[in-house]
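Same chain as my last thread, 81 residues:
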Amino acid sequence: MTKIAFDLPDTLAKEAQEAGLLVPDAIERLLREELRKAAVDRLFENMERMQAIPEPPPMTPEEVAEEIRAMRSERRKDKAA
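reply #2:
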């Protein structure tokens, strides 16, 4: 277990104490909630960045067939080696 000490403004410390927030369980709950919120924020930021990346145009059936031919050719080479 890690022990942490920090300074707070007197009025904030008094309000937090009166609200029962300066006990280990409450502080742990508050920290976990903030960590979860930060993780959700990062998730949405990453999703927005992903959406900003332009998608390549869809492949034509001919391009798909060519990719399949190339893959099969490569597999045949690997089996022969």
